[in-house]
C-alpha cells in the first residue's frame, strides 16, 4: 500500500504468463488460444486491493473481496504495444488505473482517455500518477502491477522496488517471437519461489495446487500459478 511513501518507491509486482521456454508473445498477441480462466485470474488479482495493514492477518481476511471501493485502486503499467493489443472495448482495463509507457506523444497514441497516464518510463509514470492523486484526479493506489510487454518487464527488473513476480507457467510450447527477459524459475536465479500458501496470501484467493487445464484432447492447455520474490 502506498500510504506513507512516494509512488516512485511503491513495491512493483510483475504479472506474466509464459511458456516453459519463457515465450510471452507472437505477432503482437498471445502465442496460445484465449484461456478464459487464466484471464479471469489476472483480472481478479490486478483489481483486488489489499486490506490495510492492521485490519487482519488471517488468510480468511485476505480473501475478503472488499476492494475498498471508492477509496483505493490498483495500477496496471504497460507498454504501448500491450495497450494496443487490448481490444478497444476493454481498454482502459476496468477498475484499475492504467499507465502507458511510451516514447510517443500522447496525441499520437490515438484516443487515450484523460484518466490514463502516459509517460516515457515507469518512474515518471508513477510520479505523474502521484500528482493526479494529490490533485484529486485519481484514487489513492493499492498495488502496482507491471503487465508487459518485454521491454517494460525488462525496465521493471532493473528497479529495486520490483519485489514480486506472479508467473502463470503455460505447460506447453508455442511459437513465440517475444521472450520474458528473466528466467525467475531457473536454479541459478536469485528469485525465490514462494509456497502455495504464500501465493494464496499474496493474491487473496485459493489457488489449485495442480493448476488448471482449459480445452480438450490435443487442444488442451495446462498451466500453474507461481509467486517469485526478490530476497
Automatic annotation (TrEMBL):
Keywords: NADP, One-carbon metabolism, Oxidoreductase
Record EC number: 1.5.1.3
Domain DHFR: 11-230
Pathway of action: Cofactor biosynthesis; tetrahydrofolate biosynthesis; 5,6,7,8-tetrahydrofolate from 7,8-dihydrofolate: step 1/1
Gene3D superfamilies, A to Z: Dihydrofolate Reductase, subunit A
Any one Gene Ontology cellular component term annotated for this protein: mitochondrion
Entry-linked CDD domains: DHFR
Gene Ontology molecular function: dihydrofolate reductase activity; NADP binding
UniProt keyword annotation of Oxidoreductase present: yes
Pfam families assigned: DHFR_1
Major enzyme class: oxidoreductase
Gene Ontology terms describing biological process: dihydrofolate metabolic process; folic acid metabolic process; one-carbon metabolic process; tetrahydrofolate biosynthetic process
PANTHER family registered for this protein in UniProt: DIHYDROFOLATE REDUCTASE (PTHR48069:SF3)
Record-stated family: Belongs to the dihydrofolate reductase family.
Protein name: Dihydrofolate reductase
Source organism of this protein record: Teratosphaeria destructans
Amino acid at each position: 500500500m502506498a500510504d506513507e511513501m512516494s509512488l516512485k518507491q511503491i513495491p512493483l509486482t510483475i504479472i506474466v504468463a509464459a511458456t516453459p521456454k519463457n515465450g510471452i508473445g507472437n505477432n503482437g498477441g498471445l502465442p496460445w488460444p484465449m484461456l478464459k480462466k487464466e484471464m479471469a485470474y489476472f483480472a481478479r488479482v490486478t483489481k483486488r486491493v489489499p486490506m490495510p495493514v492492521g485490519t487482519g492477518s488471517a488468510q480468511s481476511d485476505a480473501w475478503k473481496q472488499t476492494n475498498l471501493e471508492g477509496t483505493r485502486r490498483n495500477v496496471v503499467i504497460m507498454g504501448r504495444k500491450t495497450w494496443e493489443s487490448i481490444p478497444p472495448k476493454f481498454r482502459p482495463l476496468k477498475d484499475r488505473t492504467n499507465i502507458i509507457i511510451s516514447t510517443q506523444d500522447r496525441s499520437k497514441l490515438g484516443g487515450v482517455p484523460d484518466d490514463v497516464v502516459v509517460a516515457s518510463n515507469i518512474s515518471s509514470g508513477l510520479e505523474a500518477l502521484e500528482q493526479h492523486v494529490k490533485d484529486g484526479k485519481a484514487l489513492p493506489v493499492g498495488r502496482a502491477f507491471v503487465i508487459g510487454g518485454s521491454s517494460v518487464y525488462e525496465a521493471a527488473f532493473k528497479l529495486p522496488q520490483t519485489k514480486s513476480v506472479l508467473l502463470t507457467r503455460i505447460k506447453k510450447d508455442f511459437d513465440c517471437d517475444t521472450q520474458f527477459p528473466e528466467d525467475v524459475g531457473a536454479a541459478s536465479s536469485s528469485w525465490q519461489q514462494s509456497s502455495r500458501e504464500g501465493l494464496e496470501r499474496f493474491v487473496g484467493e485459493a489457488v489449485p495446487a495442480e493448476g488448471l487445464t482449459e480445452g480438450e484432447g490435443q487442444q488442451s492447455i495446462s498451466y500453474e500459478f507461481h509467486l517469485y520474490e526478490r530476497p
